[in-house]
Specification:
alpha+beta, six-stranded antiparallel beta sheet, four-stranded antiparallel beta sheet, 10 helices
Length: 261
Amino acid sequence: MRVLFGKGRKNTDSDSELILKVNNCGSYKNVSEDIELVRVNGRKDYHLLFVASGEFVVDGISYPSSHCALYKPNEAHNYTYKASEGSVYYWIHFTGTQAEEIVEDFTGRCVCYKDKSNDVNNILEMMISACVNSGERSEDYIVALLKALCILLCEKKIEKPFAKAIAMMSDFSQNHTLEDYSQASFMSDGHFIRAFKQSYGVTPLKYKTKLQTDYAKYLLTSTSLKVSVVASLSGFDDPLYFSRVFKKNTGYSPDKYRKNL
């Protein structure tokens, strides 16, 4: 595993009166063991994550490559970089009086940037390189890269056409139908299914089931809630049906999964 901290490992958790400041940035590559990070009180600055290759779990939900996550100051952190050969994870800590403004159009905790992935990767690599090889004007250059990155990530067109549908899928308290998802994406049911599978590699139903299963795994390993309660919080009305779906997707019953992990 290769770990790189652009500005070293010293504590850089601070806010700033500057317009913008990158406190630190870095990467984890070829992660050999899961890396879990939990900060109950979060950080004083903004924390941006990007999975270029691999998979990370954010707040109990698993996201594949090309997804970005944003934590605002003082928001609790709970995420895991999953072990995977060839995995590449980037992160940035930044602050400043305009920090809130440059991310105000960010569309949610986690958003997919599949069409912009290469551009995001290039900016992040340049930013890390600039931090490592700091010069007289490096901070100005690093801030310029941060602005370019946030403009790229906050373009509203990037979230379409599936952002609203995925947000609906992630709300396990509501029982949305396929028609609800397709209407939210301004597509017919058939077109929505085909386009969604082309983008994510699975059907909308399987994607939602994966979101539910990942959240159930998180609850089973991080809480002592009864299986019936875990089922309900994960969007399943019937605990028996939940157990069947969970075993089909993980190879374990909920009880055995909790005991083994």
